[in-house]
Amino acid sequence: MPRGGWYSVGVVLLFALLPFVYGNHALLFNMMMYLVLAQGINVLFGFTGYLPFGYVGFFGAGAYGASLAILLVHLPPVPALFVGAAVSVLVALLLAPLLRLSGAYFAIASLAASEVVYYIVSNPHLVSLTQGPYGISLAQVYNSGASYATMVVVLAMALAVVVYLRNSHMGLALQAIREEPISAGFAGINVVRERIRAWLLSAALAGLAGGTYAWHVSVFYPKSVFDLNISVFAIVFTLFGGVATLVGPIMGTLLLYGLYNWIGISQPEYFQLVFGIVIVLLVLFLPNGLVSLLRRVKIHVP
Amino acid sequence: MSFSAAERASPLLRASGLVAGYGPLQVLWDVDLEIGNAECVILLGPNGAGKTTLLKALLGLVALWRGRIEFRGQRLEGQRTDQRVRQGIAYMSEVGVFPNLSIEENLKLGGYYLPRREVQRRAQELYVMFPDLVQRRGVLAGSLSGGQRKMLSLAKAFMSGPRLLVMDEPSAGLSPRYVKEVIATLRQLHGAGLAMLIAEQNLGFLELAGRACILEGGRIRFAGDRTALEQDDILRRSYFGLQETPDAGRD
Ligand SMILES: Nc1ncnc2c1ncn2[C@@H]1O[C@H](COP(=O)(O)OP(=O)(O)OP(=O)(O)O)[C@@H](O)[C@H]1O
Ligand SMILES: [Mg+2]
Q: How far is it, in rounded angstroms, from Cα B208 to Cα B40?
């Protein structure tokens, strides 16, 4: 088993079995969704250093791609998810020139790009195609059990991607690019191509999560699948746990999303406060996330 | 290292009429450079002469305005840096290593594009040449001293199995003791048939070189055997004079 493999199997089994003993399936589903998105952010940011604030754009594109494949082409849900992922990858390809930007410019440009996708989808002139601002209803394929099970599989795929990157040549190349793009070129790494591969991989994960989310809730509006909060949550969870590792984003998501559900939904104003404090403490004391605490006491982090 | 008949006949690298610069600033003026198989050439010149620019132009980090570069019979001008590296040019930059990756990961990146069997074979040799590094392979490269990092970046360059090793001031920031160690390691690599191009101000490296080139104001002022350089009074005064003895950094 490659490093981190057993952790992944454990997490996947946990979410596969928990519904039998724990009633709040919506919470479990959303948690898996954020685990996938956090790993998607991890693939891009942790392994290449690009922080995509507009990450939710891929999520929304996947949700709409899958939904329209169901509504217009009458595909069954599972193949439709792949159409959704393909749409996200297509959007990512169109946006690939953004990778020429760096740091804050990239973060902001990706945010702007996701807004563009949102405005296109919700444009009233496109009602006949996307239902514009009125949102999507997939009532005819609604199936909470099957969509939950599908999210378990998507989660397994996301974790497998990160385990692969943690152990592979490609992951090493990406980390080298993140550290020193020019020196990575000296190692014979095609910097542009590897970055684009990570970008597309990351978009595909968000697209799969978006499509599965659309199927699970089966009624949604453009605002809800292009909600900037989705990006922010996924990014904070990832950074809180620690990037470029498998377990960092998992820990971050379980802890913070758990916290959000504990106090955030009943008392959102307190949650904002706690969330804000957590972020400040993180930046000040743990810039490399929770996993750096484990590393400090010499625990190997896969 | 073995060479085909064609490779023996033509030089390893032949650059001619190189013109390059930054924005409107022209730095290199018609520079010619040749490096034979298994030859070591040292590139001397005062600060700002364009040594770094010349090396970067060879690697494709500075765009050429004019000129041609041939390496093992292949034209390099249109190629990206990583493509040039894959043809067998290793570059040891000032940065050199990836500080947040372990020694082992750094070495793996050195042999990134080689077939696995070749990497394993080279790893064996590495064990003999750089035993300290191999022993500490789990350590982050960023925690090494400057000298150790330099050795790591050398080992990394070696892992890629290059034909030509290009180095920009390998002595920079090193104590005399480490300069000696680097020179000794380079001598070993050169002895095994590796060609080198070294931009240096530290004349301790001169002993490695068969030939020297002097760059001044972006033009080649002198190119010839090292012995010819050492016998030329004017050059000797302007280059060896600067640093008191040709042995600076050797003790
Ligand atoms: N990135 C850059 N942008 C603009 N000008 C540059 C740049 N790098 C170098 N130069 C200029 O090009 C000229 C040659 O610089 P270069 O670094 O090649 O010299 P060098 O011979 O390597 O000097 P040193 O011995 O100090 O390393 C200098 O006049 C320098 O100011
Ligand atoms: Mg220089």
A: 7
